TrEMBL record, chain A:
Entry's Gene Ontology BP terms: cell division
Subunit structure: Self-interacts. Interacts with FtsZ.
Name of the protein: Cell division protein FtsA
All residue ranges annotated as the SHS2 domain in the record: 24-225
Location(s) in or outside the cell: Cell membrane
Keywords for the protein's UniProt record, in alphabetical order: Cell cycle, Cell division, Cell membrane, Membrane
Domain of life: Bacteria
InterPro entries: ATPase_NBD (IPR043129), Cell_div_FtsA (IPR020823), FtsA/MreB (IPR050696), SHS2_FtsA (IPR003494)
UniProt similarity note: Belongs to the FtsA/MreB family.
Keyword Cell cycle: yes
Membrane topology qualifier: Peripheral membrane protein
Function of the molecule: Cell division protein that is involved in the assembly of the Z ring. May serve as a membrane anchor for the Z ring.
Automatic annotation (TrEMBL), chain B:
Membrane topology of this protein: Single-pass type II membrane protein
Protein name (database record): Cell division protein FtsQ
Family membership noted in the UniProt record: Belongs to the FtsQ/DivIB family. FtsQ subfamily.
Keywords: Cell cycle, Cell division, Cell inner membrane, Cell membrane, Membrane, Transmembrane, Transmembrane helix
The encoding gene: ftsQ
Length: 444, 305
């Protein structure tokens, strides 16, 4: 655990260094595309505190100066499958973004969607020594949370305190300086497969880049696609990606649950490929041009040439009606949404006061999804697009860039995590005493 | 007829070219690209390397003595061609305000072969050379338009003759030597001064000579004694010894005495005015005898008869 703590702290210090230099790259490693944005931070002095609304989620503090995407290679279900391929794809994206920005970037914040994220709710409580809550008390209460056994080969990706309670008062976002006797905390812990992280870190390192942070793509797309009140009142963000569908639930501006469904737009494509007997590239093209999930009478008459280059005239001149295409796509989209529904139910989403659901990600652009999704997920569904950030090219403002944009916001305004607080003072002597004992045992 | 190879447009369409070249940069290309984007490296390559190359090339070029010599030669040639334009050429020298002898001396001192470029004339040095002549008080050199080197000379005016070490020198009012004189008779109009340090006090001598104008016929010259005071030497071996301070007043006193009592016509060898309050006369030998005789007669003493 402390190993991870130091690792995350190292990333945080790397992020500090990047802020000092003012240039940082964000890297969205997805199943269908790898996106790289280069951000330039103008420094905090540009934001005027207490002047009207102030910085809206901090996005005024940075500017996107380079953006590039490339077709992803070697990634399946949001996990790196063929490292060399992925490394080359990352290189392509980083180099193109660097070229556009005309600066060299050394620090990168990455996000990925797969790796079986699993959420844990932790609780801890300590007595306060000096009446007023200090930072040290916060660190102690965070350390006092009893960490569940999440198994070998899992690593903590996010550990965010979501709620503080001081005596009988709950719902505090920042208890520091307040008077009380007993401080309790609720913490949200997100674990992922450590092998996936190791692979990603290795790939980034092979590109001569320093990792300044890691994030779950479900979390960061929630940051960018949900508006302020949705995050406050409770909402779920569903990031329909290429290989996996991430889902994150926000409440009181904190993520309280995240999960991913290992189905996505690529499965729809492969269904079309199998159903129409066409190559995957053609299937992808047909999906993006003619795809849909709600068939109308007009769609029976709209014929799509699906082509082929076998040399067989009959085979190469095949056509299919759009209704047929929709007939192939719809069951798969329904399946994805139903899996999401199951996951939401497991998380207890229906107990939240507001049950807004926001669909985002590349696959949310399927026409007619806004008609299909409410039938499965409930009435409050909307299609979300990411926030606008300064300097982002028009081509990168679509729903498919929700996690890239979210990662920008995450880079500018990271949430307080467990490792942002110092290790509580009393754990030091115990450890050093133990170390001394071990030394004696080893040597005498 | 139909082409056997399909046109590119026909080949595309719905079909995707799956064997497209991978756009990913190689590891080396990626690293070079990043290196190129490093500001320091870029500055080095864009400024440092060209500057080094240029300096190196220049250094290499100049390290070869032949090249150095050729460039020097070329430079000199260009310089000469500009300097020897007719506008800058000096064709003759005009000496103004000089007597023919001085004129010849100046021309002898400045042996310039005309025509010459005005860049080659160092007027300051030439002026220094000319000023070494004692007779010249001031010289102004300038190159007049039209290629004439004009030498304007102011000569010293001799006012006294100074005899020293058996030589006769002409001195001007400041005591500066003007020229040597071969015979006193050549400049009989000038008064004569004698004695060491006489040239230092020419001013005083002139004042005395002016005052002694009534004695002009008798005045033989002035003698500087001990480098501090003047003796007026008259004919008949008469000598007026003047004090160090205010010699003019002392002389006037003597002149007044002379006018009143015809002093100088008497048989005196010296009028000693060194102490103006106590003028002393030195009589000549016969006068002394005569004085003694008269004194004896007055006392009625004829013992020595």
């Amino acid at each position: 655990m402390s190993d991870l703590y130091t690792q995350q702290r190292a990333m945080r210090s790397m992020r500090e260094a990047a802020m000092q230099r003012g240039v940082i790259a964000i890297l969205d490693v997805g199943t269908s595309k790898i996106g790289c944005l280069v951000l330039r931070f103008d420094g905090a002095d540009h934001i005027r505190e207490g002047d009207g609304v102030g910085s809206l989620a901090g996005q005024s503090a940075f500017r996107v100066i380079g953006a590039a995407t490339t077709r992803s290679r070697g990634v399946r279900f949001g996990e790196i499958d063929a490292m060399q391929e992925t490394e080359r794809a990352i290189r392509t994206a980083v180099q193109a973004a660097q070229k556009m920005a005309n600066v060299r970037v050394d620090h990168v914040i990455a996000c990925f969607s797969g790796a079986n994220p699993r959420s844990y709710g932790l609780a801890g409580a300590v007595d306060i020594e000096n009446r007023a809550v200090t930072e040290d008390d916060v660190a102690r209460v965070l350390a006092s949370c009893d960490v569940p056994d999440f198994g070998a080969g899992r690593e903590v990706l996010h550990a965010q305190p979501v709620n503080f309670a001081l005596d009988h008062r709950s719902g505090l976002s920042d208890p520091r300086g307040q008077i009380g006797n007993r401080l309790a905390v609720d913490m949200h812990l997100l674990t992922v497969d450590s092998t996936v992280i190791q692979t990603l870190l290795y790939c980034i390192k092979r590109c001569d880049l320093e990792v300044a942070g890691l994030a779950s793509s479900a979390y960061v797309s929630g940051i960018s696609a949900l508006v302020e009140d949705e995050r406050e009142l409770g909402a779920a963000c569903i990031d329909l990606g290429g290989g996996s569908t991430g889902l994150s639930i926000f409440m009181k501006k904190h993520m309280i649950f995240a999960d991913s469904v290992r189905l996505g737009g690529d499965h729809v494509t492969s269904d079309i490929s199998k159903g129409l007997q066409v190559p995957l590239a053609t299937a992808e093209r047909i999906k993006t041009f003619y795809g849909g999930v709600v068939a109308t009478g007009m769609d029976d008459r709209e014929m799509i040439e699906i082509g082929g280059d076998t040399g067989d005239w009959e085979h190469d001149r095949r056509t299919v009606s759009r209704a047929e295409l929709i007939g192939i796509m719809r069951p798969r989209v329904e399946e994805i949404l139903e899996d999401v529904r199951t996951s939401l139910d497991a998380a207890g989403f229906d107990h939240l006061p507001s049950q807004q659901i926001v669909l985002t990600g590349g696959a949310s652009q399927i026409p007619g999804l806004d008609g299909l999704a409410p039938k499965i997920l409930g009435q409050q569904v909307r299609i979300g697009r990411p926030l606008r950030v300064q300097g982002l090219p028009q081509a990168a403002t679509g729903a498919g860039f929700a996690s890239s944009v979210g990662l920008c916001l995450f880079a500018a305004h990271p949430q307080d995590e467990w490792w942002d607080f110092e290790i509580p003072a009393e754990s030091y002597p115990a450890r050093s005493l133990k170390r001394a004992m071990k030394w004696f045992k080893d040597n005498w | 007829m139909q082409s056997l190879t399909p046109s590119r447009r026909a080949a595309s369409g719905l079909k995707q070219d799956t064997h497209r070249r991978d756009p990913a940069p190689s590891r080396i290309a990626y690293k070079i690209n990043r290196l190129w984007l490093t500001p320091l490296f870029r500055a080095f390559l864009r400024v440092g390397v060209p500057v080094f190359l240029v300096l190196f090339a220049i250094g290499w070029f100049f390290s070869n003595p032949t090249n150095r010599y050729a460039i020097g030669e070329k430079f000199t040639e260009i310089k000469r061609s500009v300097q020897e334009r007719p506008e800058f050429m000096v064709k003759l020298m005009a000496v103004e305000g000089a007597t023919p002898i001085v004129d010849d001396a100046v021309r002898a001192i400045l042996p310039i072969s005309f025509p010459i470029s005005s860049f080659d004339l160092d007027l300051e040095v030439m002026r220094g050379e000319i000023m070494k002549l004692d007779v010249i008080e001031n010289a102004e050199l300038r190159v007049r338009p039209g290629g004439v080197l004009e030498v304007a000379i102011t000569e010293r005016d001799p006012v006294v003759i100074w005899r020293t070490d058996g030589q006769l020198e002409l001195l001007d009012g400041t005591g500066h030597r003007v020229a040597s004189l071969t015979a006193r008779s050549a400049r009989a109009d000038l008064p004569m001064v004698v004695g060491q340090g006489a040239d230092q006090a020419v001013n005083e001598a002139l004042a005395l000579i002016k005052t002694a104008r009534p004695l002009a016929g008798k005045l033989r010259g002035l003698v500087r004694v001990g480098e501090r005071r003047w003796d007026l030497v008259l004919d008949r071996e008469q000598r007026i010894m003047l004090p160090e301070d205010q010699p003019v007043q002392a002389l006037e006193q003597v002149l007044a005495l002379d006018q009143a009592q015809d002093l100088l016509a008497r048989d005196l060898t010296a009028i000693d005015m060194r102490s103006p309050l106590r003028p002393t006369l030195r009589l000549a030998e016969p006068a002394t005898e005569e004085l003694r005789r008269i004194k004896g007669m007055e006392m009625g003493d004829t013992a020595d008869e």
